[in-house]
Amino acid sequence: MDKIWFITGAGRGFGKEFAKAALGRGDKVTATVRKLGDVDDLVEEFGDAVLPLQLDVTDRAGVFAAVGQASTHFGRLDVVVNNAGYGLFGAIEEITEQQLRDQLEVNLFGVLHVTQAVLPVLRKQGSGHIVQISTIGGVAAFPSLGGYHASKWALEGLSESLAQEVAPFGIKVTLVEPGGFATDWSGSSAVRAEPQPQYHPIRHAMAERGKQTPPELTGDPAAAGPALLDVVDAEQPPLRVFFGTMPTMIVPGIYQSRLDTWEQWKHVAIAANGH
Description:
This protein is α/β, with parallel strands linked by helices. The protein contains nine helices and nine strands.
């Protein structure tokens, strides 16, 4: 049976590849975008299987209206992909309060709006799969991305609680955690804080590290679509799944370092217990 998808940020990058993969195998997709022209090619190729909707995920009323239109149009919702988001670059001292608030409005509250809008539909069905597009930056942190990490670490905690809350209703939740991919995430999609000279060495070191990354470790967005199909077709999909080779190499060491530190300071933890 074909699946009915609701994908935010479907105009480019991962969102468009997810839509292409779903449509290519005969599924139907509500593709939400900031500009309707961004999915003209999908409409031309797949016709009525695509419902393009203009949507800003920070508009809560607009989100609820779009979800209502999508569920009425196709009759149900099977896979909801919270993909809309962007990166905020800047050291913590550099980013403005408004830049961080804007980041959270899209990357966290936008997801909250969509999730709260779809849950009544999925609960009534007794089925559904919510896919949250997180990042390796949702479980690890790097310099000059603190604001972005704040939004994605929050998304991870919200989604892990969500998974436990909705499991009794037959609803599944998966956090997709990609590494570096050849998308526009760090290009025109990004917001950059006004740089302060004292942080130039850190930025330079990060740039040099990026230059030394082997090309084969940068993921191909076109491969992400079929990968997501494997996830949503699984009878027991994972709560978390990496996309790309890079996270499989980096994250285990980060977690081991945390375990080592907790063990090293275990005596303090026990002493703090008081008895």
